[in-house]
Specification:
By secondary structure, the protein is of the alpha/beta class. It has 15 helices and 16 strands.
């Protein structure tokens, strides 16, 4: 019988427990794919006494990363601790001690990727990270390997399961934001700090990693304009629905004229299109390659077993040597690569505006006049019968025809500085396909 490969699991939370379960419960199947058995030699967590329902002997679980990094029988480690520290120090310790590493920690890669990948190269080790972007969807392998013949022109996607779960559950069940967020946490979708999910940090970090793979340039995630879902309320969803749209948190990256335009923001997506039909913890990625054309990927982007599926596939790739080849040949997160030339996202798009106006005669013409001054043409307007007194604040909803994003931003600033509004205008892009 071929010698088994011994792996160390660092972190036994939602994802780590799923990885142990999958390695044990699907051992025969995994052995067939890896060419030899893969066994969990040791695991590390904060609280080894906690019952996680795993068939791991107690003497194999500890709190000390050195029990994995210094064990010469372990060749591959799965780093499934979130956040930056101690995850960064753990990754360094594992690489320094000759382990190949598999991780799902996108925050760590987006923040310290170049440093960690350089160390891995220096040590002749590999880092595989399929689970770090879009959970169970094999988008990293698709871009880095399967679509390698293509120049990727654009990527658009839903990259955070928690925020998609919140938006779609609020919309479909009229549920309360705070209640749905708690449910997402209970289901294991959310980050340890769920602010990372709802303020768009997590999706932006994933977008930075995807853009690097697709466009070959390293974009610091903090340079990407980002708006989370905190400002999306049930009122906005109802207006979007009335116009035939849903609201989703959409990541966009596109290349044009040597420049890269990227953003993460809530957008209106047309009912019936794949992004609008992406519900719950599902993620979606739509990309355009110059040879292959448009492709669409859809699957669970968060949750225990979908994420474990990606981690275990990376462990198998590492065991059979595929991860090392990809790591070496793609130059992934190579700091010697060109810096990104970022451009503004000044595409021609339809926009949805919710202006909070004082309900007085002449206000509608003032607002449409300002839009006209900025060259923005209006497709439709909704103003429901106001229930309050004359002069009370009421929402005025406007859908524009396709127009320049920069022009809309200037018009919104102009509207918000005028004396006919009593609140900040909400402006969202509208995606019809
Ligand atoms: P959890 O919070 O559920 O698990 C984290 C694990 O790390 C816990 O087992 C914890 O131990 C352990 N840990 C934390 N600090 C230490 C430490 N100092 N020493 C040893 N162990 C430590 O997180 P998830 O499993 O949800 O996520 C793990 C990673 O995977 C994150 O980077 C996340 O972004 C990413 N990810 C998560 C997905 C999901 O759906 N949950 C999907 C895709 C990626 P203990 O249990 O004892 O507290
Ligand atoms: N918190 C993340 C999400 C986990 O909700 O998408 C998957 O990366």
């Amino acid at each position: 019988m071929t010698q088994p490969v011994r792996v160390g699991i660092v972190g036994l939370g939602t994802v780590g427990s799923g990885v142990v379960r999958l390695l044990m419960e699907s051992a025969d199947h995994i052995t067939r794919h890896a060419g030899r058995p893969i066994v969990v030699e040791r695991a590390v967590c904060r609280d080894p006494a906690r019952d996680r329902g795993l068939r791991l002997p107690a003497d194999r679980v500890s709190t000390d990363i050195r029990d994995v990094s210094r064990d010469p029988s372990i060749t591959v480690a799965a780093l499934l601790v979130g956040g930056l520290e101690p995850a960064r120090s753990m990754m360094i310790d594992l690489l320094e001690h000759g382990k190949d590493v598999v991780t799902a920690n996108k925050a760590l890669l987006a923040e310290h990727g170049p440093e960690l990948f350089e160390l891995a190269r220096k040590k002749g080790r590999s880092i595989a990270f399929e689970a770090a972007v879009a959970g169970g969807i094999p988008i990293v392998a698709a871009i880095a390997e399967c679509l390698a013949a293509n120049r990727i022109e654009s990527i658009r996607g839903i990259l955070n399961g928690t925020s998609n779960f919140i938006l779609s559950t609020m919309e479909e069940e009229g549920a309360d934001y705070a209640d749905v967020l708690k449910l997402a946490q209970a289901k294991g979708f959310a980050e340890a700090d769920p602010a990372m999910d709802v303020d768009g940090t997590d999706a932006t970090q994933k977008l930075a990693i995807l853009a690097h793979l697709a466009f070959g340039v390293w974009v610091p995630w903090g340079d990407i304009p980002r708006t989370g879902i905190e400002g999306v309320d049930s009122d906005l969803m109802a207006y979007a629905g009335e116009l035939g749209y849903r609201i989703r948190l959409v990541a966009v990256a596109s290349r044009s004229g040597g420049k890269l335009a990227m953003r993460l923001a809530p957008a209106l997506v047309k009912v019936g299109t794949p992004l609008a039909e992406t519900r719950g913890a599902y993620n979606a990625v739509s990309l355009v390659g110059d040879a292959v054309g448009r492709m669409f990927f859809h699957g669970l982007g968060a949750g225990q077993m979908p994420t474990a599926s990606a981690v275990v596939a990376d462990i198998i790739d590492t065991v059979v040597g595929r991860a090392a080849i990809t790591f070496r040949t793609t130059g992934v997160l190579d700091t010697d690569g060109p810096a990104a030339r970022m451009g503004g996202m000044d595409t021609l798009e339809k926009h949805f505006l919710r202006v909070c106006v004082n309900d007085l005669p002449g206000v509608l013409s003032r607002i449409t006049g300002i839009l006209g001054e900025h060259g923005i043409s209006i497709a439709s307007v909704i103003q429901h019968d106001p229930s309050g007194a004359s002069g009370a604040a009421v929402p005025l909803v406007i859908m524009t025809h396709a127009c320049s994003t920069a022009a809309v931003e200037r018009a919104v600033a102009h509207i918000d500085a005028s004396d006919v509004v009593s609140g900040k205008t909400v402006c969202l892009s509208v995606l019809d396909e």
